[in-house]
């Protein structure tokens, strides 16, 4: 019985010390017309799709450490992408090929 009582605080401390590797992010794309959007997410879905611009407040989940990359190629003109990861500052990119990237590391606050 004494061994069990001594083990409980150790287990409680171990469980509290683990960091979650799930990160919520949101992105916007400004522009007009259609664009090819490529999204790469660590531990999550990645792919390319054609979207109608503008795109507002789309959410994604990253389930691992690594780089989130959003690339936007509008059919005409330019586009601007904005990427927000958890409590970190917003990343923006503009151009005929707009690119927003954020590296999720151990120090990323979630």
How many DSSP H or I helices? Answer: 1
Q: What is the N-to-C order of secondary-structure elements (H for helix, E for strand)?
A: HEEEEEEEE
Bulk shape: elongated
Report on the biggest sheet: 4 strands, antiparallel
Structural class: mainly beta
**Low-confidence blocks of residues:** 1-14
Which strand-content bin applies to the residues? over 45%
First-residue to last-residue Cα separation: 38 Å
The mean pLDDT is 87
State the share of residues found in helices, binned by percent.
Answer: 10-25%
Number of strands: 8
Strands across the major sheet, in which order? 4-1-6-7
Oligomer: single chain
Rounded to an integer in angstroms, the radius of gyration calculated over CA atoms is 19 Å
Task: Explain how this protein is built.
This protein has one helix and eight strands. The chain is mainly beta. Strand 6 (79-85) and strand 7 (91-95) form a beta hairpin. The two termini are 38 Å apart.
């Amino acid at each position: 019985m004494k061994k069990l009582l001594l083990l409980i605080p150790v287990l409680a401390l171990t469980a509290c010390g683990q960091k979650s590797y799930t990160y919520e992010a949101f992105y916007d794309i400004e522009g007009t017309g259609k664009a090819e959007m490529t999204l790469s997410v660590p531990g999550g879905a990645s792919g390319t799709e054609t979207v109608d611009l503008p795109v507002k407040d789309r959410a994604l989940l990253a389930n691992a450490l690594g780089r989130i990359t959003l690339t936007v190629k509008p059919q005409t003109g330019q586009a601007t992408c904005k990427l927000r990861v958890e409590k970190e500052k917003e990343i923006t990119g503009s151009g005929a090929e707009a690119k927003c990237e954020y590296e999720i590391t151990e120090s990323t606050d979630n």
